Amino acid sequence: MILIGQYDSPFVRRVGIALTLYGIAFEHRPWSAFGDADKIRPYNPLTRVPTLVLDNGEVLIESHLMLDYLDSLVPADRSMFPTTEPARHQALKVSALATGLGDKAVSLFYEKRLHEKVSDLWAGRCRTQIEAVLAVLEADRAERSTPYWFGDHIGHADIAVAAVLRFIGEAHPGLVSLTDFPALDAHATRMEALAVFQEISQAFIAPA
Asked: Average of pLDDT values for 129-141?
């Protein structure tokens, strides 16, 4: 497989971490959706990352679909999304909140970076959404005493939340203080200390 995209994207990073944890061999092409758009377009006409090229040449273009596919390649007891309810839909919800949080952080960054005049209305809306999601995730994680969000083993929800928190901290310094979200702060610290998080990692590089 070929994973296209830089690891400063939380969406690319979550897929790279999952591939590594599953022991699935892949080639990483750290192409930027901005600087390397012409390289990405033949694989993905949306020129978005992550883009995952499968061994048979087919291409997946959304991180959740990539993880769903990867889960199908491993035994059910190794799947990093729970396979039974209610844990399954709960983990999907946490992951969706995390990736939605990442989307809002990306939108806010581009609003500030690409527009000569920033829309205070749009920027304020993004900040409100980011704060609201963090509050919900904080409350959920604080209620759980397990090492990982849904038990004793790492899951896709754990990875998504930590990757997005790293992105927010680097792309928007000072926007959020994790001291206001102690359960999320502890979660992120625990995840980033793992060898796989240190291996699949890249400091944020703003698009040129």
From this structure: 97
Residues 6+ apart with CB under 8 A from 139: none
* Beta bridge pairs of residue 29: 4
Q: According to the model, what pLDDT value does residue 117 have?
A: 86
Q: How many CB atoms lie within 10 A of CB 165?
A: 27
Helix axes 63-72, 10-22, angle to 10 degrees: 10
* pLDDT digit string, tens, across residues 171-193: 999 999 999 999 999 999 999 99
Match 């989307």 to its residue by tokens.
Answer: 103
Q: Is 133 within 8 Å of 108 (Cβ atoms)?
A: no
- Assess contact for 17 and 155: CB atoms under 8 A: no
Residues 6+ apart with CB under 8 A from 126: 104, 105, 107, 108, 111
CB-CB contact of 188 with 165 (8 Å): yes
pLDDT at residue 208, as a whole number: 65
Query: What 3-state class would DSSP assign to 190?
Result: helix
- pTM of structure: 0.95
